[in-house]
Amino acid sequence: MILFCFLGLLINQNPTPDFVIITAEATPIERMTLAQLRSLYLKRLDRLRGTRLTPLQLKEDNRHQQDFEGWLFGKHFDTTGHWIEERMRGGPHPPMRVSQRAEMLLYVARNPGFIGFLPRDQLHTVAGLKLKQITLDSPRAR
Amino acid sequence: MFFVLLMMLGFQDGLVPVDSALVSNGDWRLGGWVDLMSQDAGDQGSYADVPHAYVFIDSGDSRRWRGFAELAYLNGPAPLGQDADSELSLERAYVEYRFDAALKLRLGKVNTSAGLWKENLWSVLVDTTRKPLIEDKRFLPRQIVGAELLGRRTFAQHEWVYAAFISYGNEDADRGGLADVQSGVGFDTSVIFYNRWRVGLFAYDYRNDLEGVDQSPGDRQAWLAYIDLSLLPHRLILRGEYLDLDRENLDPLDGWYLKMKWRITDQLYANLRADQIQVPDGHALVDHHVETLTLGYHVLPQWRVRAEVADHRLKDALRTEYRESSLWMGYIF
């Protein structure tokens, strides 16, 4: 009985949504590893195979942003703490933020080299925006 | 339709959104931190004051060249038998040339890249109020004045982080450290596996030039090995560092610490650390062992509090055991 309850709790936990990474069709990057993606979003990397890449993110309190951080860095990663620490170390600034997903898609579509993210189940909504998906060599996060 | 509306509102090719930093004016950033501490160490005395206040200015990371400067007011508890002494100090001042985000060159006064602990900067960021003994006794110079090349590379799911430096010296010999004046060369390198496990090595070959700073001036060779293991991702962390120091004209010494941190919630954590080092006691070295239990809480990401108890044991020393307890609060602005 206890085992069933435990399994039930595990099953009822909110699953982490799956995300895809998008960029303009003109960006000459087709794939990257998850570690490279993390490094890009932590501003430890800004070029891949000679191409300058600029990550975009949403505002901190945006639910999609929180889901994305959980997917990319792990559920309990302290993103705010990380950027406070980087600021005091003389490290990089956080990636630029936009307030809405639609803005992100527009910036990405109109600026080759910008990258953004989208829940996988929303991919069909961006047809016609001259965007493409970047393949992750190891799509499972963490 | 919504996209069309946004375009009509004036979004243009090449327009770059602006990030909102905590305290910033465009690319420039002004920030710092301050802390309050109340400490009781029995017959070692008590302390209640502002041990640190730091202010820094940073020209930002969007250009090839960057400038960074940090001023500190230091007013920590004095060692037994010494008068408390506060001071204003230029902690860091350097220019940075950025080859790209993964490779930088710094010239000026920088924190020594040495393992996981960075003594002065991290007081407000680390998990404990007491520093590990290998840091507290300051056998390693905490800063260098010279040049430092630092970078990182990503391989598959792993990262390689490295720094190499040449130190010309440091003018802070009067601050009570054992290795404040030095010239030398060193490196720090580590590999992070799967974003969870980090192993690294630091080496520093330097010279103490000032008599009296470390009992006898001479060459020093320091090795520091370290691990940082995320047993449960970002929840349960095991961390340790081991220092081995060869000293010309003096006995070699070594020290270590091992700690376990459990993030009970996103705001609350418990930290248990054991550390040991050999410390000079007259002309001999004695073992100093400390166990430290800390409970920390992040009221806000910028506002942090800690309660801590540390039990000290010194083998073959005049004073063999004592307990230290402290309450601490820090604010980052």
Can you describe this structure?
The complex is a heterodimer of chains A (142) and B (333). Chain A is an alpha/beta fold. Chain A has helices at 2-12, 34-41, 63-73, 79-89, 101-110; strands spanning 19-24, 31-32, 47-48, 51-52, 54-58, 96-98, 114-119, 131-136. A 6-stranded mixed β-sheet of chain A has the order 2-8-1-7-5-6. A two-stranded antiparallel sheet of chain A has the order 3-4. Chain A is globular, with a radius of gyration of 16 Å. In chain A, 32% of the residues are buried. The model of chain A is unreliable at 6-13 (pLDDT under 50). The longest helix of chain B has 7 residues, at 2-8. In chain B, 3% of the residues lie in helices and 61% in strands. In chain B, strands 2-3-4-5-6-7-8-9-10-11-12-13-14-15-16-17 form a 16-stranded antiparallel beta barrel. Chains A and B meet through helix 2, helix 4, strand 6 and helix 5 of A and helix 1, strand 2, strand 5 and strand 7 of B.
Write a short abstract of this structure.
The complex is a heterodimer of chains A (142) and B (333). Helices cover 36% and strands 23% of the residues of chain A. Chain A is an alpha/beta fold and 142 residues long.
Walk me through the topology.
The complex is a heterodimer of chains A (142) and B (333).
Chain A (H helix, E strand, L loop, with lengths): L1 H11 L6 E6 L6 E2 L1 H8 L5 E2 L2 E2 L1 E5 L4 H11 L5 H11 L6 E3 L2 H10 L3 E6 L11 E6 L6
Parallel strand pairs in A: 2-8, 5-6, 5-7
Antiparallel strand pairs in A: 1-7, 1-8, 3-4
Chain B lengths: L1 H7 L15 E2 L2 E13 L5 E13 L6 E10 L12 E14 L2 E9 L21 H4 L6 E13 L2 E12 L12 E12 L3 E12 L9 E15 L3 E12 L5 E11 L4 E14 L2 E17 L2 E12 L6 E12 L1
Antiparallel strand pairs in B: 1-2, 2-3, 2-17, 3-4, 4-5, 5-6, 6-7, 7-8, 8-9, 9-10, 10-11, 11-12, 12-13, 13-14, 14-15, 15-16, 16-17
